[in-house]
Every structure is written in structure tokens, then in C-alpha cells.
Amino acid sequence: MDWHECIKKSIAKEIKPDRNLIASARKIASIKIESANALPKRYHIGKITLLYDALREYLECIALEHGYKIYNHECYSTFVKEILGKQKDAEVFDSLRKIRNGINYYGKEVSETDAEQIIASLTLLIEKFRKEIK
Fold first, then answer.
1. What is the reported pTM?
2. What is the CATH number of the domain that holds 95?
3. Segment 33-90, tens digit of pLDDT
4. What CA–CA distance (Å, rounded) separates 96 from 133?
5. Could you give the number of structural domains in the chain?
6. Nearest alpha-carbon partner for 84 in 66, 57, 100
7. How far apart are CA 68 and CA 62, in angstroms?
8. Which of 61, 64, 72, 87 is most deeply buried (CB count within 10 A of its CB)?
9. Which stretches within the chain are classed as H helix?
10. Cα(85)–Cα(77) distance, rounded to whole angstroms?
């Protein structure tokens, strides 16, 4: 799916930036990161889902700053690729989205070893996008 299709299908809409919503989403992301970091290593599935949610919250902040409200996770990948011009980050986000969906919707298990790499990728993207929020 491309950005034009996201807009055409109303999965992403143009809006006026809402500073209160951005501040709220940013705070929620921070709480989710803190929660993930408080979990013991053996709860790596919980860490992954919380960190993914935090990453998505930060992407929501950036989209809102650009004047967009996005209603599905696939269009966040497209937003990162086509609006922000970050092809590699979009690919990484999309692969993390698929892992998270596998966990949440298909009961896919992730080994502790794989979880370490996934958590490292999530943490890297979180830091990258957190710094972009004004």
C-alpha cells in the first residue's frame, strides 16, 4: 500500500496538528517504555509488545506534527517511507510490525535470543523517532 492509497481509503487523514494529543501520546510512549524496562528478561514477549506500542506512539506524534492522523499500522510504514523519506527505517518498522502481529494475533512465540535482537531494533528506532518530535 502506498501513501496515496492510505489517504484515498481514509486510513490516513489530513488534520490540524494537536499539541495536546502529541504531548499525551508522547507521555504514554514513555510510560510503555518504562513498563517494558521494568519487566524481567523472561517476559521478553511483553517487552516487545510494549516497546512496539511505544514506537507506534512516537510515530503518531510525528504524523500529527506533519498534519496527519493515521488509523492503521501498515500506513505508518508508508508514512515513514514516503513522507519522512526513511526507506530503511520503514522496512525495519514493517518487519517489527509483522513480528508484533504474529505475537498478538497468531500466538507466535519468540525465543529469548531472537527477542534480544528485536528489542535492540525497537530501542534503536524508538530513540531515532523520539528525537524527531518537537
1. 0.95
2. 1.20.120.330
3. 999 999 999 999 999 999 999 999 999 999 999 999 999 999 999 999 999 999 999 9
4. 21
5. 1
6. 66
7. 9
8. 61
9. 3-8, 19-38, 44-65, 73-78, 87-106, 112-130
10. 11
Smallest CA-to-CA distance from 26 within 46, 68, 47, 55 is with 55
Q: Is the Cα torsion angle 16, 19, 24, 28 positive or negative in sign?
A: positive
List the domain range (segments joined by +) for residue 64: 3-130
CA–centroid distance for 78 within its chain: 12
Q: Write the single-letter amino acid at 59.
A: L
26-35 confidence digits (pLDDT tens) = 999 999 999 9
Q: And the C-alpha cell for 29?
A: 510512549
Per the listing, cell 517476559 goes with 43
Single-letter residue type at 23: A
Could you tell me the three cell numbers for 1? 500500500
Report phi then psi at 14, rounded to 5. Answer: -75, 135
Return d(Cα 55, Cα 52) in angstroms, integer: 5
